[in-house]
């Protein structure tokens, strides 16, 4: 049966996408990439900030634990060659205390374990009254008369953390 000349024919639509559909998809993908790429980047700056935050939190934990356990205050013992540190009691600085969450020795090595994403972060230097231990007194202040500094590095950049001798509060400096 032939359609009448006045009736429109049902034409089959060709397979494929229109130009408008293609442009829409490209715009959506570009927006998603623009949002995702910065979040997925693992720059040295980001790793250094992360390491400084981890160390500052661990210093704060050691300080709180020292106040809570005034009979045997806590220390943070640095192992510079291995870019690591551990929390210990003053009476046994060589043995890490147990991390209350992980139930493992409270040992932090940048680039391993919970800090696996913090690769290439190093403990460049520290000023801890002539030794490798930063202790806290029973009231939360440092066990040394001067402020303590710890400098972390990553791919040519550094950040210095400073612990106030009187309050024990840790300040994270600017990244240089």
Write a structural description.
The structure is a single chain. The protein is of the alpha+beta class and 176 residues long. The chain has one domain: minor pseudopilin epsh fold (3-Layer(bab) Sandwich). It has 2 helices and 9 strands. It has helices spanning 19-40, 44-68; strands at 74-79, 84-89, 92-96, 107-109, 121-127, 133-135, 148-154, 157-163, 170-172.
Features:
minor pseudopilin epsh fold, 5-stranded antiparallel beta sheet, 4-stranded antiparallel beta sheet, single chain, 176 residues, alpha+beta
CATH-scheme architecture: 3-Layer(bab) Sandwich
Distance between the amino and carboxyl termini: 83 Å
How many strands, what sense, and barrel or not for the largest sheet? 5 strands, antiparallel
Number of helices: 2
Which helices and strands occur, and which strands form pairs?
Layout: H1 19-40, H2 44-68, E1 74-79, E2 84-89, E3 92-96, E4 107-109, E5 121-127, E6 133-135, E7 148-154, E8 157-163, E9 170-172
Antiparallel strand pairs: 1-2, 1-6, 2-3, 2-4, 5-7, 7-8, 8-9
